[in-house]
Design goal:
Elements: H1 3-7, H2 10-13, E1 27-28, H3 40-51, H4 64-73, E2 81-85, H5 88-97, E3 104-109, H6 113-121, E4 125-130, H7 140-150, E5 154-158, H8 170-179, E6 183-187, E7 208-213, H9 215-219, E8 225-229, H10 231-240, H11 248-259, H12 261-285, E9 289-290, E10 300-301, H13 307-316, E11 319-320, E12 322-323, E13 334-336, H14 342-354
Parallel strand pairs: 1-11, 3-4, 3-5, 5-6, 6-7
Antiparallel strand pairs: 2-8, 7-8, 9-10, 10-13, 12-13
Helix pairs in contact: 4-11, 5-6, 12-14
The chain binds pyridoxal-5'-phosphate.
């Protein structure tokens, strides 16, 4: 037995690391990134700001100014507290770390894999209640039964859901918030692509918090997520947050980007238009079933047994998407391309025709 085997927890040794596909030289449509870079003028202005930014000191530990800007940009109710994280991934981890051992995290399946992974990191139980296979909606009787039986400390709901792209029914989520014995985290990572949000409902529930990120709006490289909710929860989470978790360059750069939010809103609109165009072409041309999406990706189902062929074929044509078949029975024959620029999408469609 090696030393690592002796001391590393068994559940960690059995875990596979979160895998990121090698995208070198490929058109990258696998990770829900905004495909647009910043206009030249903006990059020059940004570089000037960075030139006058000093990194010899630690960052503002509370990122106060950035927090205020985010409150305005994301319409966070004034009486709610805000916690910033190094990506919303870190916030999921912070929440899980505050829970006592033996407690349970509940989510739906398929959904964002970090809920399950972080539960494992922190030695917590995880329950994933399957969505309804036909339309990926919440299976309410199963959800309510799981809540009753497992008494989860936290429920994570991705709204819209990754990787299915749909919004759950808002009234059903309200029923779950009311039935939950603990906290409900509504993860609004895809907020830029939908009107729906629970942000304005924070005041109505003691046990609701809303999580956001700047990643999907076009700042994935900066790593910044936030949690909005009642002080009673957030002040406890804040104790577990490592000091200086949001670095100086992220604070300065996000503040700069938010001043130019109109540009990101335009990019987001262009992505939504392309999404609708792709969706209808996927359904017309390839015998795929492409599911409606409120996000910047499209879940599609290929004819039986053909997902692998399309995934590999696209890769041979220089295009990387995400293969979901094999990850969950509900995602049989499923692929998930992220919406790219019109040029990237055209290349994907051409490649699919060739395949
Ligand atoms: C992408 C994604 C996140 C992660 O966001 P980061 O802020 O980049 O860590 C969280 N939740 C869902 C549902 C996502 O799809």
């Amino acid at each position: 037995m090696t030393q690592a085997n002796r001391w590393i927890r068994e559940e960690i040794r059995h875990l596979s690391a979160y895998s990121v596909q090698d995208a070198k030289g490929l058109i990258k449509l696998d990770a829900m990134e905004n495909p647009y870079t910043w206009p030249e003028t903006l990059r020059v202005e940004w570089a000037e700001q960075l030139q006058n930014t000093h990194v010899n000191r630690y960052p503002d530990p509370h990122a106060t100014e950035l927090g205020e800007q985010l409150r305005a940009a994301m319409a966070i109710p004034p009486d709610m507290a805000v916690l910033l994280g190094n990506g919303s991934d870190e916030i999921i981890q912070i929440i899980a770390m505050t829970l006592g051992s033996g407690h349970t995290i509940l989510s739906v399946e398929p959904s964002f894999v970090m809920y399950r992974m972080v539960a494992t990191f922190c030695g917590l139980e995880y329950v994933g209640v399957p969505l309804k296979p036909e339309d990926f909606s919440l299976d309410m009787p199963a959800m309510l039964q799981a809540i009753e039986q497992r008494q989860p400390a936290v429920i994570f709901l991705s709204y819209p859901n990754n990787p299915t792209g749909n919004l759950f029914n808002a009234e059903e989520i309200q029923i779950l918030i009311e039935a939950a014995p603990g906290l409900v985290v509504v993860d609004e990572a895809y907020a830029p692509f939908t009107q729906a949000s629970f942000m304005s409902q924070l005041g109505q529930y003691d046990n609701l918090v809303v999580m956001r990120t700047v990643s999907k709006m076009g700042l994935a490289g900066l790593r910044l997520g936030l949690l909005a909710g009642r002080e009673a929860w957030l002040k406890e989470f804040d104790k577990v947050r490592l000091p200086y978790n949001v670095n100086t360059l992220t604070q300065v750069s996000t503040r700069f980007a938010l001043k130019h939010k109109a540009i990101f809103d335009q990019q987001t609109q262009a992505i939504c238009q392309e999404r609708e165009r792709l969706l209808s072409l996927f359904n017309q041309l390839f015998g795929f079933k492409a599911f409606p999406s409120q996000t910047n990706f499209i879940l599609l189902r290929t004819p039986d047994g053909e997902a692998e062929k399309y995934f590999n074929g696209l890769k041979d044509h220089g295009i990387l998407i995400k293969k979901l078949c094999g990850s969950h029975p509900i995602l049989r024959n499923c692929l998930r391309p992220t919406v790219g620029t019109p040029e990237e999408n055209a290349a994907m469609l051409q490649a699919l025709l060739a395949i």
